Amino acid sequence: MEAREDVKLYVKLPGWFKVSTPVGDYNPDWAIVMEDHASRAGKPILYLVSETKDTMDLGKLRPDEKRRILCGAAHFGSRQFNAPGALAGIDYRLVTEASQL
């Protein structure tokens, strides 16, 4: 993340940061502040909460991990999972490396 100019801030979310979902509390991995790639002027700033896993294949994850990821996508909104979400301006993604942000 340090090598990317579009990343302004990133933090590992603490264990107490939880999102309530129908399948239990969910603790995303990271909060990331990036310049919006769609805006060539670098504004507005986009806030992302990302979940990182070793695989992009949800079928290879434990059932509870898969449910939490899909609930996170539904809560935050995700183009990746075709979920509009309850919060505007946030795009939730499952990634395996920083270049996928």
Proportion of strand residues = 25-35%
Cα Rg: 14 Å
How many discrete domains? 1
State the low-pLDDT regions, or none.
none
For the largest sheet, list the strands in their spatial order: 1-4-5-6
Measured as a percent range, the helix fraction is: 10-25%
How many β strands by DSSP? Answer: 6
Mean of residue pLDDT values: 79
Morphology? globular
- Helical segment tally? 1
Q: First CA to last CA: what distance?
A: 10 Å
Largest pleated sheet:
4 strands, mixed
| Category by helix and strand content | alpha+beta
SSE pattern, N- to C-terminal? EEEEEHE
Please summarize what this structure is:
This protein has 101 residues and is an alpha+beta fold. Helix content is 14%, strand content 29%.
Notes on the protein architecture:
The chain has 101 residues and is of the alpha+beta class. The chain has one helix and six strands. It has one domain. Helices cover 14% and strands 29% of the residues. It has a four-stranded mixed beta sheet with strand order 1-4-5-6, with helices on one face. The mean pLDDT is 79.
